[in-house]
Design goal:
alpha/beta; 13 strands
């Protein structure tokens, strides 16, 4: 059991102590992100339940000294951390942060506004509106997603809002689509007949959203050769369900699937959804940031006609978790779903302001736009684009190494920063490869598509060709043994 050191001063930390401890913590963070994180294995190797024996089984009655607490953090908490900022972290999709983002979170934590309505902190609301418009313009999204444009003299109907995750964005839009279809339904049992559709390659968050919303969900198989869902498959699934008396109401197209970064063909799905009055949402949690670069925009065909679009700046834009950007073409779809008017939340500021509590599930919300604002201003779009191009370039470099070596086979063409590869010696050899990679201090993950097991290498934190070449040397050396 740890030795608890009772505080001599029972009062909370004063400003002078905070300055001293804060400076020391900033030094620790700077050292960790600059050097330390790259010198440790990316993957934590602790056993499940390790922390229970390291900490007391009850909270202390008397406060403890900060230095003793932080010593426990270093000795007991840090061994259980998987290092997502390491250049050796290659698993899942990335979650890159930056010093600028951390400063934004520090300031947000100090101000600590609970920005559920405009009056709670006007800047909290207005900065989110502005930064989401900045971001929409930087991505070249359709104008109807902006909060501040006008069409024929009429104010904007759409707009952007920061959610916590892409999973939340999918749930929010699914609930809005459900509310929209039920508002005009004449069948008293309509709620029991609603069906949502997505690719069998889509993220599991779509299934979870359907469970929460209480609707059916169809995981539609995309063509095996492309893994990209098209309007042909969606139309067939919709027609089959309508013939059974069900009510199709929502489709999720994924641009940048989790397993292989495939892009659903939204352009061909749009007319199918339009013909049936169905909401089409695009989940581009990982890939969406690459819209910053004009050379990748051809992958995102059809965005000009979808109902909503989401991506995560907290993956590859140097914005720390959590920060998920969602745009809708008609904000009233969200507001009519989530709006409530309790007397204790009423404020005499008129209807001209945005109250983002009505664009989401919870009431309270953090000042997340502050870190997005700091990152966009500090890096500038040119540097953010350069980061993305470096990721994609290193991934292409790894894929070319694999293509030139007959011991390796790409499972899917490399898109953006993800390389999906297997050993031609078989599944056991590929599993052995991943085990060897992770034992060497890296952390890579796997997936299975069409019954085929493969390794996924998500390139994000590497910035130099030498780092990538060291990884390839490890892969090639292992392949030699099988």
């Amino acid at each position: 059991q740890p030795c608890c050191v009772t505080r001599q001063d029972p009062d909370s930390m004063d400003a002078a102590t905070f300055r001293a401890k804060g400076h020391a913590l900033v030094d620790f963070i700077a050292d960790y992100l600059e050097h330390g994180v790259h010198e440790m294995p990316a993957l934590s190797t602790v056993a499940p339940g390790y922390l229970r024996s390291e900490l007391p089984d009850h909270a202390p009655e008397a406060g403890e000294e900060y230095d003793a607490i932080f010593a426990d953090v270093l000795a007991k908490i840090m061994p259980g951390i998987t290092h997502w900022q390491s250049k050796k972290f290659l698993a899942y999709f990335p979650a890159r942060t930056s010093f600028e983002s951390i400063l934004g979170d520090m300031l947000s934590g100090a101000l600590n506004p609970i920005g559920f309505s405009w009056i709670c902190s006007p800047a909290c609301t207005e900065l989110e509106t502005i930064t989401m418009d900045w971001l929409a313009k930087a991505l070249a999204l359709p104008e109807h997603f902006l909060s501040t444009h006008t069409v024929g003299g009429e104010p904007a109907k759409g707009g952007g809002v920061i959610q916590g995750t892409a999973s939340e964005a999918t749930l929010v839009t699914m609930l809005a689509a459900r509310n929209r279809i039920l508002a005009t339904a004449t069948d008293p049992n309509a709620a029991l007949k609603l069906v949502a559709y997505t690719s069998a390659q889509a993220h599991s968050s779509v299934e979870k959203a359907a469970k929460i919303a209480g609707v059916h969900v169809r995981l539609v198989a995309p063509p095996a050769d492309t893994l990209s869902l098209t309007g042909v498959e969606v139309a067939a699934a919709i027609e089959a369900d309508k013939a059974q008396g069900l009510i199709p109401f929502f489709v999720v197209a994924t641009m940048g699937t989790t397993s292989v970064c495939a892009f659903d063909d939204a352009e061909s799905i749009v007319p199918v959804c339009d013909a049936h009055g169905i909401w089409l949402h695009v989940d581009s949690a990982y890939a969406g940031s690459f819209l910053l670069c004009p050379e990748y925009r051809h992958l995102f065909k059809g965005l000009d006609k979808v109902w909503s679009f989401n991506f995560n700046p907290h993956k590859t834009m140097r914005v720390g978790f959590d920060c998920s950007a969602l745009w809708v073409r008609d904000r009233m779809d969200l507001i009519s779903t989530f709006e409530t008017h309790p007397e204790y939340l009423r404020a005499s500021v008129g209807s001209a302001v945005i109250d983002y509590r009505n664009w989401q599930i919870p009431l309270g919300r953090r000042f997340r736009s502050l870190k997005l604002f700091l990152v966009m201003r500090s890096f500038g779009l040119e540097r953010l684009r350069a980061d993305l191009r470096t990721m994609a370039g290193l991934a292409t470099r790894l894929s070319k190494y694999c293509e030139a070596d007959n011991r390796f086979a790409l499972v899917y063409p490399t898109h953006l920063g993800l390389v999906s590869v297997r050993l031609t010696a078989g599944e056991a050899a590929t599993k052995g490869l991943l085990e060897a990679v992770n034992k060497a201090g890296y952390f890579a993950s796997h997936s299975v598509v069409g019954g085929q097991y493969f390794a996924r290498f998500s390139i994000a934190n590497m910035t130099k060709e030498a780092d990538l070449d060291a990884l390839w040397a490890l892969l090639a050396d292992y392949a030699q043994t099988v």
